[in-house]
Amino acid sequence: MLKIKHTIFAILSKPLTHSVAQLVVLMAFLTGCYKENDVVADLWDSRGQIANVSVWGLGTAPGYTTATSITVAPGANVNLYLQYFAPTGLSIKEIRILQRIGATTSPITPLLTVPPTAGQFDATARQQVANVTLTAPATRGATAAIFIDAVTSNDLVATRRSVTIRTTP
């Protein structure tokens, strides 16, 4: 502590031009040792790339719609359209379609698995596209949320997308 006081006194006793230059050097030295926390690095834990389900909509290509819900007669067929791709170096292992019938607290159960080879490459969309036909619930006034998961070869799942199928009362 005595040495620091002596150094500061020595800086302040010199002519002003030398003092300012020495003070700048001292500040640069002191701030050079400061390690700043990386606040962004603590926000997530990257485990790898995932597939992208860019479109999960009602209808079939090319007449699909981006609407996320439809009301149909009980037991009716519902056509769903899917566009997906995996980043370079990855492949899609499977596409899972899941459902939840009823309230949002109801369990989500597997409905079917679509092989990734079911889709065909669409040069316009530059993605794989597939049409999936599901059957609406047989109960009148039922609501079914239909979810899609695309699982990549590194076992990571894409962000879950959903559409809602309601049956007429």
Topology:
Blueprint: H1 2-12, H2 16-32, E1 52-58, E2 69-72, E3 77-85, E4 92-101, E5 109-114, E6 120-122, E7 127-135, E8 143-152, E9 161-167
Parallel strand pairs: 2-9
Antiparallel strand pairs: 1-3, 3-7, 4-5, 4-8, 6-7, 8-9
Question: What are the defining features of this structure?
Answer:
single chain; 169 residues; alpha+beta; Coagulation Factor XIII, Chain A, domain 1; 2 domains; 5-stranded mixed sheet; 2 helices; 17% helix; 38% strand; elongated
- Total number of distinct structural domains: 2
- Note the total helix count: 2
Structural shape: elongated
The amount of helix comes to 10-25%
What does this structure look like?
By secondary structure, the protein is α+β, with helices and mostly antiparallel strands. The protein contains 2 helices and 9 strands; from the N terminus they run H-H-E-E-E-E-E-E-E-E-E. The protein folds into 2 domains: 31 residues; 116 residues, Distorted Sandwich (Coagulation Factor XIII, Chain A, domain 1). The protein is 17% helix and 38% strand. The protein has a 5-stranded mixed beta sheet, with no helix packed on it. The protein has a 4-stranded antiparallel beta sheet with strand order 1-3-7-6, with no helix packed on it. The longest helix has 17 residues.
